[in-house]
Amino acid sequence: MGANTLPSGLDALFTLADDMIDGLHTHEVAVGIKQNTEAAMQPLLDDCRTKQAAFVAKKQAKVDKTGVQTVKNSNSKAFIGAARNAFAPSLGETWSTAWEPTGFPNQSTAIPSNIEERQALLNALNLYLTANPTKENAPLGVTAVIANTLYNELSTARSDANQSVTDMINAMQARDTSEKVLRASMRGLIGELTQRLAGDDPLWYAFGLVPPDSLDTPDQPTGLTLTPQGDGSIRADWLNAPRAGGYIIEVQVVGVDAAFRPLMTATESEATLFGLPAGAMVKVRVIAVNAEGDQSPPSAVVQVLVPGTPVQPVTLSGTWNVGLVAASLVWTGSTAANLQGYRVLVSSGSSFNPATAIIAGSTPPGTHAFSTAIELFNPGDVATFVTLTLLTNGTEVASNPITITRPV
After folding, report:
1. Whole-angstrom Cα distance, residue 159 to residue 170?
2. To the nearest whole number, what is the mean pLDDT of the chain?
3. Residue 175 and residue 184: Cα distance in Å, rounded?
4. H or E stretch including 65?
5. Confidence bin at 1 (pLDDT 50/70/90)
6. Of 152, 334, 340, 374, which residue is most buried, by most CB within 10 angstroms?
7. How far is CA 83 from CA 123, 143, 325, 377, in A?
8. Which of 327, 370, 368, 376 is nearest to 347 (CA)?
9. Full set of structural domains in the chain with CATH
10. Taking the complete model, does pTM exceed 0.70, yes or no?
11. Of the ranges 125-134, 238-247, 390-399, which one carries the lowest mean pLDDT score?
C-alpha cells in the first residue's frame, strides 16, 4: 500500500511540495480542493525555502566566526608563551610573587587552559607592559601595543562567535516553525485528495504522490555523475528519486565482474566509492529503495576510469630545535600531479586529536619544512603534529602523526 508519507529531508520535501503545487495549479478546481490550494501552499513553501537558506547562511557564518576565534585564540597563546619567555630571566622560571603584577593566573606561569583566562591575561599584560616598558621585548613581539591589539581582536572574535551561535539557533527555530506549517498543509492536501480521488486514480501522480492502492515504488534515479578523486576513490552524485528511502550503488569492473554487484548503500543522493582497483574501468549504476524494500529500476549506467595511483601521504618527522626555540618539522615531498601545497596541524598532547587540532601554518608545494612553537610554549609541553597534502580538487591526505616534547 502506498503510504504517501512526507520525506524527512528538506530537499525532498521541497521537491514534493513543488510537485503538489504543480498538480494544484492544473487540477485543484476539477478535483475540488478547497483548503490546501495552490494560493495557500505556495507562500508556505516560499517562506520555508527562504528560512532554510537563512539558516544555512547563519550556520556557515558560525563556522566562519568560530574559525576566526580559533586563529585569534592561537595568536593569544603564542603571545602569552613569548611573554612568559621574555619575563623569565628577570622574574624566574617558576611562579613567585614577582610574577603577580603580570597577571598570570592560578599562581602559575603556564598559558591559561581556557580562553576566558587567556583573554583576561592579555589585558593584564597590556597594563603591566604599559606600566613597565623596560619589560617589553620587541624582537620577541612582546609589547603593550601588541598585547592590547591581541586582546581587542580576541574579545571581538569571541563576541562575534557567541552571537553567531545565537543567530544560527534563531534561524533554525524560525525554519523549523515554517517547516511544521508547510508539512501540515501538505498532509492536509493528502487528506483532501484521499476524500476526492479513488485509491487507484492515476491523478495522484500529478501531485507527486502515488495511488494509495498501488505499491509505493521509488522512481528510477537520474543524473548520475562520477568524479575520480586524488586518493583513488570515486565521488558519485545523482538526483533525489521521489519516494526513495535509500540507495544501492552497484558496480561492475570491466573484464573482472561478469555482472553488476552491490558495492555499498547510501541514505542521500551522493556517495564516495572506495576499494575499486586502481587503473580499472568500472561501470556504476544506482537503484532507489523504499522502507518496504521495493526497488526502482536501475539508473543509467555510467563508466569511469579509477585513478591509477592513489595519492600517498607524505612521511613526517621532526624534533625540538633549541636554537629556534620551536619544533622543526620536515616531510617528504608529494609526487601528486595536482598538488596545491601542505598544511601543518597541531593538537596538544601525546596523540593527535582532529577535533581540537588547529592550523599551525601552510607551505607551497616546493617547501617541505616548517617550524613552530604553537602548543609548545612552556617547558614540558607536549604536542602532536600532522602534515596534510592538499590537492587542487579539494582532497586532503594526512601524514603520520609525530609527537614532540619541549625539554624542561
Report:
1. 17
2. 91
3. 14
4. helix 38-91
5. very low
6. 334
7. 13, 9, 14, 10
8. 376
9. 1-216 (no CATH), 225-305 (2.60.40.10), 316-405 (2.60.40.10)
10. no
11. 390-399
